[in-house]
Amino acid sequence: MELDIQCEEMNPSRWAELLSTMKTCKAIRLDDCGLSSSDCKDLSSVINTNPSLTELKLNNNELGDAGIEYLCKGLLTPSCSLQKLWLQNCNLTSASCETLRSVLSAQPSLTELHVGDNRLGTDGVKVLCQGLMNPSCKLQKLQLEYCELTADIVEDLNAALQTKPTLKELSLSNNTLGDTAVKQLCRGLVEARCDLELLHLENCGITSDSCRDISAVLSNKSSLIDLSVGDNKIGDSGLALLCQGLLHPNCKIQKLWLWDCDLTNISCKDLSRVISTKETLIEISLIDNNLRDAGMEMLCQALKDPRAQLQELWVRECGLTTACCKAVSSALSVNKHLKILHMGENKLGDAGVELLREGLLHPNCNIQSLWLGNCDLTADCGTTLATIMVSKQCLTELDLSYNTLEDDGMRKICEALRNPNCKLQQLILYDIFWSAEVDDELRALEESKPELKIIS
């Protein structure tokens, strides 16, 4: 049994009712529920008396250090077999880290710890690293995003990595590490015995100087399948270095996030080689890079390579226009693997969607999720969109937000939704203005098609 509640303020009677339920739950998730330190006393008792509880998720609650102190009393009991603990954005400080260290040292069942968005600081996480180094600790996933860490943490992290072969996932995004620390971390990862699968270093102050060392991790850790270095100014020169590791035979990367990395169309030649030859790669995010039409055309050429296995391509806000849509359409008509395509915030226009239609309607195209928000679309492309919705039965998610479709365009969308051949499950329509009559049509459609969710 699982208890999964979000964004609900707890009054005493409701809390008492839930506590009774929690005694037999395998998972308790109470994100954004207005919980405080006093509620942690009750949760500690639940942990102590419910040996079947394996997951506790308490993100975005004002638990504070006092709350964690109460909670950990339950976590330290012999009957506790918790595996996953989520405490993101819970108003914790370094004072909580000594308590959490004792849990890491004493609870071999704990395999996931998520403590991001807390002001733990470098000194606090150094204490956590002591717990990681305990032989009893079997942690596999450690999330430390937005923890106010500095370069000084890396020596302790590396020491912990050397003793922790169980570690699979490490997220350090949104901490001011800088190139020197990231280089040091990467050298430690290359030497570490752990089979790391996920490494997230978004917004860590990385430049091209770090990329050779990150590339070495890719070359040496065939276990690494998920790398995110988004929101770092690595530029085209850094990307070229990364691609050396990505193209290495040992590299088995599956998910690669390079959003807002100061890339241009120059990088697309290297990226095309990765897409066309790295058959393990199934997801790439290039959001907010100045790729432009020339870069997108190179990527599309790679998508047409029989070896390309990419399933998700995110190219939102990449300076694209109508001019690249013929190449995208051609790729869609050849590539059978691509299922998710994010092209929002590009000036594709009605003419661009008309060009995309041929590829989208091709029998080879298996697109399931298509994002065209803020693409300068008007009511004139309503018929084209409606045709795609009705004809492409594998399409289950469509985003048309921030486009001036108006009533005429929306009526064509509604007509398509009424067609039994339309299998859309989620239609996203933020900031599109329509009349009360169209609004009534949309509401009626939601009632008549329970599988359809319209988000506006």
TrEMBL record:
Compartments reported by the entry: Cytoplasm
Molecular function terms, GO-annotated: zinc ion binding
Assigned GO CC terms: cytoplasm
Keywords: Cytoplasm, Leucine-rich repeat, Metal-binding, Repeat, Zinc, Zinc-finger
UniProt-listed SMART domains: LRR_RI
Domain C2H2-type: residue ranges: 316-347
Record carries keyword Zinc-finger: yes
Coarse class of the protein's main subcellular location: cytoplasm
A Pfam family reported for this protein in Swiss-Prot or TrEMBL: LRR_6
Signal sequence region: none
Subunit structure: Forms high-affinity heterodimers with RNASE1, ANG and RNASE2.
Job description of the protein: Ribonuclease inhibitor which inhibits RNASE1, RNASE2 and angiogenin (ANG). May play a role in redox homeostasis. Required to inhibit the cytotoxic tRNA ribonuclease activity of ANG in the cytoplasm in absence of stress. Relocates to the nucleus in response to stress, relieving inhibition of ANG in the cytoplasm, and inhibiting the angiogenic activity of ANG in the nucleus.
Protein name: Ribonuclease inhibitor
Gene that encodes it: Rnh1
